TrEMBL record:
GO terms for molecular function: glycosyltransferase activity. Residues 1-10 have a biased composition (Basic and acidic residues). The keyword Glycosyltransferase applies. It comes from the Bacteria. The keyword Transferase applies. Residues 1-23 are annotated as: Disordered. It comes from Bifidobacterium criceti. This is Orotate phosphoribosyltransferase. Keywords: Glycosyltransferase, Transferase.
């Protein structure tokens, strides 16, 4: 007796908001440019919040579909096309959904982009091998203001966290080409992050790219 192949439920396209009796706010949202849509979601969540890991936006179906494309566009505007890096790595747990969004956005453009996450329990990375790859390290919100110990450029610059990240990436034979954040708060024209190699104390200035500045969202 032969077994029939399982049938999978087909995905039915979701009607556009304007076509299904949407409220005025929903209809207006649907007509916005993608960057403005994402800014609207971030602003609504960030109201009266000095800091957030942004999970209500990064795990929102609308945010997840927007973040990857907007960040890829921002990277390209700053001189980093999808051909200039091979993988994106989450600096913190807050960045994991962002890495997933970037991977899916790249795939929708016909490009292959791997992802990984830093593992501090056993200094390593989780995900496909990054040996020989050019990587961009990603976080949700990196600011000069030290709101959260593990998600702050103050900590990353003056502490050992980012140096440890670079040491781990370097030990695995990969190269960090930039650091990118969905929200940034660095008030210099061409921001960089100085990283000190924990082995030989050499300093490296790495470009820092922010998709939105804090001032745009408050």
């Amino acid at each position: 007796m032969s077994e029939e192949a399982p049938e999978f439920r087909k995905t039915v396209p979701t009607p556009r908001a304007a076509d299904q009796g949407a409220t005025p706010d929903e209809a207006a949202f649907a007509l916005m440019e993608p960057r403005d849509q994402l800014k609207t979601l971030l602003r609504a969540h960030m109201a009266d919040r000095p800091f957030s890991e942004l999970s209500p936006v990064t795990f929102d179906h609308r945010g997840a579909s927007l973040i990857g494309h907007i960040m890829l566009d921002t990277l390209e505007e700053q001189g980093y096309s999808i051909d200039d890096f091979d993988a994106v790595g989450a600096l913190t747990a807050a960045a994991v959904p962002i890495v997933c969004s970037l991977m899916h956005a790249a795939a929708s453009r016909g490009e292959a982009l791997d992802g990984f996450v830093m593992d501090f329990v056993y200094p390593a990375t989780k995900g496909p091998s990054i040996r020989g790859k050019r990587v961009i390290l990603v976080d949700a919100w990196l600011s000069e203001k030290s709101y959260v110990q593990t998600s702050s450029l103050v900590t990353l610059r003056n502490g050992n966290e980012l140096s440890l990240d670079f040491g781990i990436v370097d030990a695995q034979g990969a190269t960090v080409v930039a650091i990118a954040s969905l929200i940034g708060g660095v008030d210099i024209e061409e921001p960089t992050v100085r990283v000190i190699d924990p082995v030989d104390d050499t300093a490296t200035d790495v470009p820092f790219i922010e998709t939105f500045h804090e001032s745009e969202l408050h």
